[in-house]
Amino acid sequence: VSQEQLDNARKVWQQLLGKSHHVRVYIAYSDFEAVTCQSMEKAREALDDGQKHFKVENRNEERAMLLEHLLKLEREHGDDTSIEAAEKRQPKREKKRRVIPGGEGEDGQEAYEEYMDYAFPEDNKEQQNLKILEMARMWKKRKIESSQ
């Protein structure tokens, strides 16, 4: 397979991603890059692009699928460092509850349903920064109030 044919194939994949941001397209494109083109760097880029897209859309199931596929590719084609990095990015499954709109549970209380969600390590870092900022604001507010 010549380099020109690989470049044309990449263009076709990118056109498809422009039209359909489906998780299976990102996975197939990353497989193409890793196996056919033997470029783990481009495979990682494809999966990272999918991660960014699904993060903006708040689609955690798809993000988890992409990270799981990244780990699989790293185990097959990567080195120890990249495998370890992919393992650290894996999300944790957690059980959450949400209110059912218009639903009433026992004793007239709001009804809840349980569902599974994912906690991503990179998201937790962002949330920690926000918590630190909020605590700093509260400290400053208390300091101003106590000095008055």
TrEMBL record:
Against InterPro entries, the record matches this protein to:
TPR-like_helical_dom_sf
What is the protein name given in its UniProt record?
Crooked neck-like protein 1
Which organism is this entry from?
A: Cladocopium goreaui
Q: Where is the composition biased (Basic and acidic residues)?
A: 77-89
Compositional bias, Basic residues, is annotated for 90-99
Q: What residue spans carry the region label Disordered?
A: 77-110
